[in-house]
Amino acid sequence: MARHLITSAIPYINGIKHLGNLVGSQLPADLYARYCRARGHEVLFLCATDEHGTPAELAAAKAGQPVAEYCAEMHAVQAKLAEGFRLSFDHFGRSSSPQNHRLTQAFAKSLDEAGLIREVSETQMYSPQDGRFLPDRYIEGTCPNCGFESARGDQCDNCTKQLDPVDLIEPRSTISGATNLEMRETKHLFLRQSAMKDDLEAWIDTKTDWPVLTTSIAKKWLNDGDGLQDRGITRDLDWGVPVQRDDAPWPGMEGKVFYVWFDAPIEYIACAQEWEEAGKGTDWARWWRTDKGADDVRYTQFMGKDNVPFHTLSFPATILGSGEPWKLVDYIKSFNYLNYEGGQFSTSRGRGVFMDQALEILPPDYWRWWLLSHAPESNDAEFTWENFQTSVNKDLADVLGNFASRVTKFCRSKFGEEVPAGGTFGDRERQLVADLSAKIAEYEAQMEAIEVRKAAAALRAAWVLGNEYLQEAAPWSTFKEDPETAAMQIRLGLNLIRLYAVISAPFIPDASAQLLGAMKAEGADWPSDLDSDLQALVPGHIFAVPDVTFRKIGDAEREDWQARFSGRR
Ligand SMILES: Nc1ncnc2c1ncn2[C@@H]1O[C@H](COP(=O)(O)OP(=O)(O)OP(=O)(O)O)[C@@H](O)[C@H]1O
Ligand SMILES: [Zn+2]
What we know:
Blueprint: E1 3-8, H1 19-38, E2 42-49, H2 54-62, H3 67-84, E3 91-94, H4 98-113, E4 117-127, E5 132-133, E6 139-142, E7 151-152, E8 169-173, E9 182-191, H5 197-205, H6 212-223, E10 231-232, E11 234-235, E12 244-245, E13 248-249, E14 257-258, H7 260-277, H8 285-288, E15 297-304, H9 308-322, E16 331-335, E17 338-340, E18 343-344, H10 355-361, H11 364-373, E19 381-383, H12 385-415, H13 427-448, H14 452-473, H15 475-481, H16 483-504, H17 509-518, H18 530-533, H19 555-564
Parallel strand pairs: 1-2, 1-15, 2-3, 15-16, 17-19
Antiparallel strand pairs: 4-5, 4-9, 6-7, 6-8, 9-10, 11-14, 12-13, 17-18
Helix pairs in contact: 2-3, 4-7, 4-9, 5-6, 6-9, 7-9, 12-14, 12-16, 13-14, 14-16, 15-16, 16-17
The structure holds adenosine-5'-triphosphate and zinc ion.
Zinc ion binds at residues 143, 145-146, 148, 151, 156, 158-159, 161.
């Protein structure tokens, strides 16, 4: 048994996540966590909401709510949706937690003592009318690059150029619309990432098994242009972790907070503390401190490509730079983007299908299966309603669902709702056991390598083997001359349903539970030896014919959904 710490990139608080966010982080992390648990490993699976920063403050202002109240509400909404998709977090924390405040301030102190934080005086836009500095999205103006009139202080949405608020032409405050802005001096803290470049590069170079997507992005940030840059870790905002050295004030930094990219990954650790303090487990340090037993933990992170720089460089700089015995990540699984019907998913433009909407129209397994079996691993992937319909109908309804239904209904009609006795395996059955053993070994290898699409393909192929067997063995014909052999074939079929339910659980947990319930085989173990696993349900064992496991998606409803989700949400 191994110990697996698993974290998903923490979703930003300012809205309901779309299916791209889901498949780029939380869902594959859940798949892996479920698989590791099923194989008997000890797992701590953590996620949280990322609650600080300007977009949260602006979203709260737009909703007419105090930001703390807005975040608490949105956290509850996201937690409920996570449950709806069966995301099996051991704890779903909040980056605004007191634990994260304390830990972020403690890291800042250690980094400062190690000489890795420097103070920088900058000029920033100040709005006398609003009585505050206007960082990032608090300011809008015309893009100096493309002339777009609503470019934000941090980035132009039209041409995607990264901007500094002082670059904007005719800047205005997004709070009040004020245009009488002035440049004022303000001091900020920077993390001296440049001083850690060699250490970080040496560490990345040891990660020869990481996905190319992960290491190539890290290398680009390390070496492109002038190399890895120091980054500001503070902002002039109200909502956030106050800048302190542990619990002592930081002279000159009054009224400032740490910035999101610095405090958000620290929440991975704080979340384990929250988990313990919520009474869900004990000894968080055993997962996170190498001096307290975390040496044998394997730590895997999941995220979309835009989060890779912060996880390969910035957060490791925080950990390494602290000089303290924190657990470093062992494997970073990153994803390309999922696109939507010829364009991008977009939260700000309300484009695509969002988690709440998806669950309104179909149960979670339909989405889990499609998203995971089409995960954007080697390339960007695209969601289309046609593809979704085809894949659900073929893989889930025609192959897996149909198999379970045919076997159980035939058994009920000829032998009753109990596993029939009689007959012994022949060549065809021995061949099936051999083929299935090979397929399941391949499935396990792909799951262990976190090759999500390939694992889905191997699982589907295992389902197909059962269908082909049933087609060839044709117990409905055998039954006429040789009921004993038909009984053996159906007994094998019933055992295959049990087997499929067990191995499919990481992908489609609800269907798995339904089938195990129908087979009265709850708590069945992961297969270890198919010869005996396929005889686990013995003659006389009672079962029930399950309700429809997966229904087909019709053309009319598919067209309906296509139209309904073609505009803005
Ligand atoms: N289209 C996408 N496909 C796959 N992963 C994505 C996609 N968009 C975002 N992600 C990932 O989703 C996770 C959660 O993202 P987050 O909540 O920060 O929203 P985001 O990146 O701002 O997305 P958006 O800009 O669409 O709101 C991150 O790991 C991010 O990399
Ligand atoms: Zn622009």
